[in-house]
Amino acid sequence: MSEPTEQLPTWQHFIGGTWVEPAEGQYFDSTDPATRRGLYRAARGTAADIDRAVTAAQAAFEDPRWRDMSQTRRGHLLRRLGDLIAENAGELALMESRDNGKLLREMRGQLTTLPEYYHYYAGLADKIHGSTIPASDRRVLNYTAREPLGVVGAITPWNSPLTLTTSKLAPALCAGNTVVIKPSEYTSATGLRLAELALEAGFPPGVVNVVTGFGPEAGQALVDHQGLAKISFTGSTATGSRIAAATASRFIGSTLELGGKSPNIVFEDADVANAAMGVVAGVFAAAGQTCIAGSRVFAHRSVYDELLERVCARAKTIRIGDPLDDTTELGPLAFEAQRDKVARYVDLGRSEGARVLTGGAATDGGLGGYFYEPTVLVDVDNSMRVVREEIFGPVVAVMPFDTEEEAVRLANDTEYGLAAGVWTTNLARAHRVAARLEAGTVWVNTYRAMSPMSPRQGFKTSGVGVEHGTEAIREYTRLKSIWINTSEEPVSDPFTMRS
Ligand code: NAI
Ligand code: MG
Q1: Is 216 near ligand 1, meaning CB less than 6 Å away?
Q2: Three-state SS at 38
Q3: Could you give the residue ranges of the DSSP H alpha helices within 202-271?
Q4: Looking at the domain that runs over 10-258+462-482, which CATH code has it been given?
């Protein structure tokens, strides 16, 4: 049941360090997907709000308080922001859990590592610098400087809003940019809270701004704004492709982290019990709503039955329910349309000839919410849409193979290239297969490991550019080459040949 809109707490845009009424005065409701109850109202941003935010971010970028701030101080502020997030971890975890249905337990886990991303970039802030180049003419001094870009637009999704926003915000601020965040319309709250904490940490007003609203309205207006220096986006490949086209036509950069259909390969020499847990964690954690979900499993024919048995046995006992309850293992999908999309894909799989070994039905979780059972599909192959397209739900397709060569070929037979898992006890094979997989991240005998220190990149249609690690700084800076004539010699006439 939806509560009357009037009683819901209201969030405005966060622009220039203050709460700002949406230009057109409109708001939209955000709901708890576990219970369908209304949670809060968020401002429905339009082009006028985006313009106001980009203008504030441009002013902050030019303001000496930010432009001339020492890099040491920038690092100090990032460290303080990380600390503030740790101090407010309980509130942030609950907020995001209620907004997108993620398990509160999982959110608490995310919140213990989230400050590390700010601390990592805090340590990097005073290590960004250019170099001196020994130009061929020794009378000329040539050096480079790594400069911030300007206003960065960050468009983020709903599946892990705090973490995925942080992957953009921390390096962008570390490099000296200012930021306008447009969170997903399904999860507006934690991005706003993050911006508020950034102000509290000491970032000058206008350095971090948030405009909430819908993709085709606020998101599109941000992408189209001429004041932007760069877009950093995480979400669907379809929207990413549109953003890539729009930014390319204006010659500004974009970092894109997009979809996946990642393979998890279980070889005959694997520890099958471990591999089964890796498969379950890879696709049923976060109800499968992760870009890195290991949604295609290839198992060597000799271990295929045992693996299926173990995966299905665990899938059947996964406890579906209230994400706030610590004994729950699977929460809801983040909103009704996402649950319906998952259901449609499983039905499509059935009509394509797939057999549902376990799961295959929607449920309200006893709470009236948007749940879907952990689902295992067999009798599938790479020609089926259910195996080719990103479902973004708790659905795994399991297929047998006979040789290593075949496993690599099947795993790479996809438009995506985000991540891959390899399960083997053969060291040589682990390295050999890792080298041949077309994926930006390869995990061997583990799945889902992540660190602010480790760069990640999507291959093929899974993305452009690098997030995390020192490499991410390149995405948020530009390189300037400066030439200084150090000689006292007169500048020669350009029309006489130099000796
Ligand atoms: P989406 O890619 O449309 O949304 C992501 C963000 O982009 C949101 O903030 C949205 O408001 C914004 N956006 C949408 N249209 C835009 C436009 N024309 N211009 C600028 N910004 C725009 O994805 P959505 O609709 O939330 O989910 C649909 C599917 O996308 C999911 O079912 C899933 O398959 C995939 N997805 C993948 C993610 C990943 O991490 N790989 C994350 C979220 C969704
Ligand atoms: Mg919500």
Answers
A1: yes
A2: strand
A3: 220-224, 237-249
A4: 3.40.605.10
